[in-house]
Amino acid sequence: MYAIVDIETTGGHASANGITEVAICIHDGIQVTHRYETLINPGRDIPVYIRALTGISNEMVQDAPPFKQVAHEIYQLLHDKIFVAHNVNFDYSFLRYHLAASGYDLNCNKLCTVRLGRKIIPGLPSYSLGKLCHSLGINNESRHRAGGDASATAELFGLLLSRDANKHILSALKKNSKEQNLPPHLNKTIIEKLPLMPGVYYFHDQKGKVIYVGKAVNIKKRVCSHFSGNNPNLQRQEFLRNIHHISHQECGTELMALALEAIEIKRLWPKYNRSLKRFEHTFGLYTYEDQRGYLRLAVDKHRKYSDSVHSCRSLLEGYSLLNQLIEEFELCPKLCFIQKNNEPCTGNYKEQCACTGQMDVHIYNQKVQYAISSLKEQLPTFALRDKGRNYDEQSCILIENGRFYGMGYITNDFDADNFDALKAHLSPYPDNGYIRNMVLSHAERYPAKKVEFGMVLA
């Protein structure tokens, strides 16, 4: 038995919106045997654009039952049936969410008449309910009302049943089939062709624009996880409505995938990505000249349009480094903002220090320059070699003078000890603190993967 469902709501996702109308047609595979329809008081205002679309006003639902009052009856109609709807995940997510809030756990097999329509009757100009019904000669005098749309969907479903020579409906209902969890506009063959290896994947909208970028250790498994379950939140519901295509880039390792994901999010700025969009390196060691001509060192938050002399992964790391420079090069703790009180300078020169103006500017500034030079000499230049996308290649990420240069793939017999040849073989990318820190941390954990080079002159 099939329960063919249509609902009207106050908005696009279940967790923040109510249901205003429910219609259910019970179908035995031949005909509709029972119809159920009711208005529902959503307990909130119906937005004006929803009122204009459906014709359901606040006054119409004022005396209608709240969902909890009809939840038992709706559950009894649905729980042992195959749940059918046009764009099934929308209707199912709403009813499952509100039934759960009323104490009922709905868990049905699902069929989507959008997906089935594309398979059983291919080549039509549109598979929206209104245009699909118009193409097939199905009459619907109550468009955007639950009763009218449910009846039209029931007639459409009967037509699909009669034309399903290749048994697409039976295939979709098989226990191991996950097809009904997929977005309605996404072809199943796209999922089937995804590889089981690390990489980056892209969700595209109807116009081909990238709306989400993600990384994965297993691309196919990770992509499918986006469509599993019945999460009612806004992002998942918009995914299901807007994803029309998926593309991908394979990577040799998870680290390469993480780096490429960060690069692509910065490049494409996809609509649904939240993390990494605003990430910038947190702290840096900066230098500037004060009014008296003394060079000063300071740990500060990352400045977008100013280069630091050294990058720090944390404020603590920055201050620890600065204290080391003060001790090694006899710098003034006051001019480095380590000593911030009005007490006498605690540095080696006491009252003869630069902070009192007693030390020659040139002499003090030379100490600062030596400190900066020592930092630059410590900046690492190395490549990380690891697994490639196949047995004939290796992945390679290059850090040059402490900054992320780029990455790519080399053959197994490539001479990675030749810095200039290696650099020319890799794709350069903008320096990225997030990637840099990941690579440095990875190199600390797996030193055997490093190919080290001496300091490279700019």
TrEMBL record:
PROSITE patterns associated with the record:
GIY_YIG
Q: Which SMART domains match?
A: EXOIII, GIYc
Entries under InterPro entries matching the protein: DnaQ, GIY-YIG_endonuc, GIY-YIG_endonuc_sf, GIY-YIG_UvrC_Cho, Ribonucl_H, RNaseH-like_sf, RNaseH_sf
Coiled-coil ranges per UniProt: none
Which superkingdom? Bacteria
Family matches, as Gene3D superfamilies: GIY-YIG endonuclease (3.40.1440.10), Ribonuclease H-like superfamily/Ribonuclease H (3.30.420.10)
Protein name (record): GIY-YIG nuclease family protein
Organismal lineage? Bacteria, Pseudomonadati, Bacteroidota, Sphingobacteriia, Sphingobacteriales
- Domain (GIY-YIG): give its ranges: 196-274
